[in-house]
Amino acid sequence: MQNFLYDLRYAMRQLRNTPGMALLAILTLALGVGANTAIFTVIDSVLLRPLPYAHSDRLVFIGPGGDKPTFGSTSWLNYADIHAQSKLLEDSVGYAEDVSVLEAKDGSVSVVAPRVTSNLFTMLGQRPLLGRTFEDVEGKQGGPAVVLLSEGLWRQTFHADANIVGQVVKVGGKPATVVGVMPATFSFPESMGADLKKGIWLPVQPTQEMLTQRGYHFFNVAGIMRPGVTVSQMQQEASAIGARIPHEHNDTPVTFRVDRYQEVLTGPVKPVLYGLLTALGLVLLIACANVSNLLIARALGRRQEFAVRASLGAGRSRLMVQMLSEGLLLSLLGCGVGVALAELAMIGIRKLPDGTIPRSDTIAIHWTVLLVLAVIAALTTVLSSLLPALLVARANPQLALQAASRGLGSKSAGGKLSGWLVAGEVALSTLLLVGTGLLFRTLWNLEQSRLGFETAHITTFMAMPSDAAGFSGMAVSEDTGNAPSSVATITYEPVLERIRQVPGVESAAMATAPPLSDMDLHSSFEIVGEPLDRANRPQARMTAVSEDYARTLGTPIVRGRMIAESDALTTPFVVVVNEALAKKYFPGKDPLGKQINLGGKDTGMIKPFTIVGVLGDQVDSSVGGTVQPLIMLSQQQIPTTSLFYQALLKTVVSFVVKTRGEIPVMQEMRNVFHQQAPAFALDNFQTMQEAVDKNTFSQRLGLYLVGSFAGLAIAMVIAGLYGVLSQLVSYRRREIGVRMALGATRGSVAKLVLRQGSILIGAGLVAGLLLAFATGRLIKGFLYEVKPLDASTYVSVAAVLTAIGLVAAFIPAKRAASIQPMQALRDE
């Protein structure tokens, strides 16, 4: 221990003697360690740490069958069968993601309002901050109307009123009694994101449609497996339950998929985070190689010192411990600065847009991260110090003393080792640069891809009526004689007319699901006159639109016409479909004039609809993604007694406004609604360009991050190559002087150094390109319209790295060419 402390003190003195080298090594390690610490903190918080629920390791999500984990919805009847028949579940719950409008003293606010079964809170082991959770009677059909508030909403909207429990508020235009407040730490279902921090919970009170129609898919199912049960066993049981359904209930076949809830929640970001961790691991290796080169340079510069110490009796192990001590000190200092950089990175990560990373509010540096940091410190110590230590230990004292008098050539062990390390840095940098190039091509292709709509001067926003019906409590009304007036006629049309009169507004339209709005309502339909396949019914996204929708967004009509103002309840019912639907369900045929049914009595859409137009495809949920079939209905032709009316017009709609220039759209629209529909809650104002940028944010973030890593790697390569060649020139100073004294020109000396640099760059490039070729398929899922083995990217990377390498080699080459022969020989 005494020797170790002595070695550390000696190492500190050595580092003080070479502050430039020490600072460069510490900063190099700090960047590598800090970036790795930051990304592992995210992985630890998001992927590895358990969800904040009781028995979260046994929490599973049961959705419809599919190829990958996803929050797919099912029906109340399917949930009831699972709840009643499962022997491997300790308990199961159902919930529906929904929205509503809450009326308080300060006005109406739109809120996310998941509807949950009354046993959810007990199953998850959650207690309210105030009051109580739901009782069983409140989850029955026709049960009491109650609501649970989130802590954020309670504090912001109700000003943390301690007497809130028992008060009556209006939710969706109907009175509901507040029975409790849930703490800020509770946010189930977490798939609804940060909005739930200021949301509400309502009890599921199944409607007649939910109790009788298995195809009513607005419901999600989760459960806690019994101890010792595996997901595979649970999957087998769920599959068996699904197989029995058509035989017991004369229904269509049902398939279920069982996944751990956390896997479904974090699945989309898992490959991204692990990909970034791999890239940062490469950066850390490059940093260690750079520090090793610096320590090798110091070791070679101190070869006389080590030779004298060895001659005086110091053993090889003693010399190795000394070098490892210096490496340990550098690693500890680098890790210390790296933690500070990681904390700065955490600030940036927490400012990412909501939804970019699930559970982002839980991201923090925990003890597990510090443990990994200790491992990183040990790893960097070994990687950066082992080679210099071995070099010192293997040195022959007599040869080292002789070499001090005649210089050291590039063929020495130290020179070769430094060269190999630089070649390795070039190889790893090549891999990062290839990834950056492919991601850049992907982002470019996304930005140049066909959107199907214009983005300039177009703004969208959402509007919710105070009596919003919600998606999960829909029901068909049989009282067609007393059907209420359509909100489209009494509210939306007058509002649209007033919006069009606002100075600077060119056109305006209403649409339930404009592009990139995250509104994704699907329905099955039947084509009149064609045989029905119950197991594979045609499916399409549904939206209600007003006239001027296509003109406002600048989307072309491919065939026929668009929805018109004259398409009302008293005229023949019509729909417009997109190209994707026409190609999928009417291949080689003209869809105009064809009729479709949208459920008949089951949905309240009694009359068939005639296809009168085909609209050009618009991007729906993701830029560059597959466009789904789409059916557009006239907002005036949806019966108010139907399910479609409640889902499309009575819950949340969007308005699309195109202006002639820059005007304060948000303020103007709020003024219009304040005059025409003051009870509506407006939210989510954004331009179409902002919507596109938000949708491609993940790709841009990935490009920026990997590009930053690649830039950092290149900087390290430049430093490493420059250091090795400068070291080469320094060690061969006497040799170069002799060469020039014997007639060598300055040009030939410069070429000698440049050739040495070119060999290192070439070897690293070949190895890096082969490595990129071998691993290219791993990033295939992140690319869009570009192949992992894109030739232009590989050629560009090779050209860039070659040019950068030659620039880094130029200064040492120029210095070698400027050596004065007599001065070099006299100095030696």
Automatic annotation (TrEMBL):
Annotated transmembrane regions: 272-296, 328-349, 369-396, 417-440, 701-725, 759-779, 791-813
Keyword Membrane: yes
Classification via InterPro entries: ABC3_permease_C, ADOP, MacB_PCD, Macrolide_Exporter_MacB
A GO molecular function held by the record: transmembrane transporter activity
Annotated ranges, domain MacB-like periplasmic core: 23-240, 473-638
Cellular localization per UniProt: Cell membrane
Keywords carried by this UniProt record: Cell membrane, Membrane, Transmembrane, Transmembrane helix
Domain ABC3 transporter permease C-terminal, chain residue ranges per copy: 279-397, 708-821
Pfam families in alphabetical order: FtsX (PF02687), MacB_PCD (PF12704)
Annotated Gene Ontology cellular component terms: plasma membrane
Topology with respect to the bilayer: Multi-pass membrane protein
Principal place of residence: membrane
Top-level taxon of the source organism: Bacteria
Family classification: Belongs to the ABC-4 integral membrane protein family.
UniProt name for this protein: ABC transporter permease
Annotated organism of origin: Telmatobacter sp. DSM 110680
